[in-house]
């Protein structure tokens, strides 16, 4: 049976998720800094990518930018240096049948130790911040399906999802089809260059700089009106696991706001209702910084500082029903300023027997 394995990228702080054969990282927090006036607004146009038609790399690039465009967080431009680094790492993961961010020089296909080192070796500027997500899934029979499957897994997680929609500006894509009994390997490497603070770390995206959406904007995932939403979440496949006590949670729901100054998003109410109006049992998951100002039932990130200060998740305690419409209501505050929103989405229909 083909299983999926995936590994979280570093999100808002200098901290590397590890698992599935990956190494450790720096656990020191990156101090939030104010965005200089040259931080850019979300990009609405980028050059057409040069990946081969039908390739796994093109499928992932298009899936990534389709989601980012729909959310209004800004498109990512293809980055040749990051392409080289991401592809080298995908080859390394495939050669060693592992999933992780760090490479060991004694292993086959070694390129460089960390995402930052690989990007610099490939020609990325010394000032550019580099983040990464990696995954392995599929049997290689359908390259496009494997590549899309990698992205769909990232999109339906907690820690990975933050890396997919944050304030990066460019992306490199790596993909190697399954071979020799191992899964297809997928890597996205993100670059942030505009108005960034100094001192990029091994695998990290800063709060400041890059693409910054409006301070009043509220991003919700799933999006309002989104259909074919996956009802469940393979929490045990995400390393580290954001809900280690739940054997089969539902698809995580996210509220995300501008965090350029390291603003904290707190939650006072976060509720999920099914089509009959009945409330679904859930758990609100917040950053350590948000816990003191949030409702008492909110749970601080069980893995420390992986959750961004500007994100809050709602985790159903069991998988959602297939082919059902759900309504979400959220109330909280960004840096003390109240905000609220509500929206609905529909899960994917159950497969026909």
From TrEMBL:
<dbReference type="Pfam" id="PF00188">
    <property type="entry name" value="CAP"/>
</dbReference>
<dbReference type="InterPro" id="IPR014044">
    <property type="entry name" value="CAP_dom"/>
</dbReference>
<feature type="signal peptide">
    <location>
        <begin position="1"/>
        <end position="19"/>
    </location>
</feature>
<protein>
    <submittedName>
        <fullName>Allergen V5/Tpx-1 related protein</fullName>
    </submittedName>
</protein>
<feature type="region of interest" description="Disordered">
    <location>
        <begin position="22"/>
        <end position="45"/>
    </location>
</feature>
<feature type="domain" description="SCP">
    <location>
        <begin position="62"/>
        <end position="187"/>
    </location>
</feature>
<dbReference type="InterPro" id="IPR035940">
    <property type="entry name" value="CAP_sf"/>
</dbReference>
<keyword id="KW-0732">Signal</keyword>
């Amino acid at each position: 049976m083909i299983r999926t394995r995936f590994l979280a990228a570093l999100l808002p702080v200098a901290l590397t998720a590890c698992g599935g054969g990956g190494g450790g990282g720096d656990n020191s927090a990156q101090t939030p800094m104010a965005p200089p006036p040259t931080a850019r607004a979300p990009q609405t146009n980028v050059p057409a990518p040069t990946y081969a038609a039908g390739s796994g790399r093109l499928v992932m690039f298009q899936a990534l930018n389709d989601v980012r465009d729909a959310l209004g967080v800004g498109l990512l431009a293809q980055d040749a240096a990051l392409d080289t680094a991401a592809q080298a790492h995908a080859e390394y993961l495939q050669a060693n049948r592992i999933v992780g961010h760090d490479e060991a020089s004694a292993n086959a296909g070694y390129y460089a130790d960390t995402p930052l080192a690989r990007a610099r070796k490939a020609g990325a500027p010394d000032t550019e911040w580099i983040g990464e997500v990696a995954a392995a899934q599929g049997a290689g029979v359908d390259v496009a399906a494997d590549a899309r499957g990698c992205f769909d897994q990232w999109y339906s997680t907690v820690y990975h999802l933050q890396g997919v929609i944050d304030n990066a500006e460019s992306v490199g894509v790596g993909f190697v089809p399954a071979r020799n009994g191992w899964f297809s390997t997928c890597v996205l490497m993100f670059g942030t260059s505009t108005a960034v603070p100094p001192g990029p770390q091994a695998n990290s995206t800063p709060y400041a700089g890059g693409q910054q959406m409006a301070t009043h904007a509220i991003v919700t995932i799933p999006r309002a009106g989104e259909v074919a939403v996956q009802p469940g979440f393979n929490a045990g496949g995400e390393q580290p696991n954001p809900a280690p006590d739940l054997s089969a949670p539902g698809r995580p729901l996210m509220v995300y706001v501008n965090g350029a100054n390291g603003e904290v998003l707190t939650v006072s109410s976060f509720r999920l209702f099914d089509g009959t109006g009945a409330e679904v049992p859930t758990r609100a998951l917040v950053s350590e910084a948000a816990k003191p100002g949030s409702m008492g039932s909110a749970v601080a990130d069980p893995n420390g500082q992986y959750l961004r200060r500007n994100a809050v998740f709602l985790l159903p305690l069991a998988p959602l029903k297939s082919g059902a419409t759900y309504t979400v209501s959220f109330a909280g505050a960004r840096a003390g300023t109240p905000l609220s929103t509500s929206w609905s989405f529909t899960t994917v229909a159950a497969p026909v027997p």
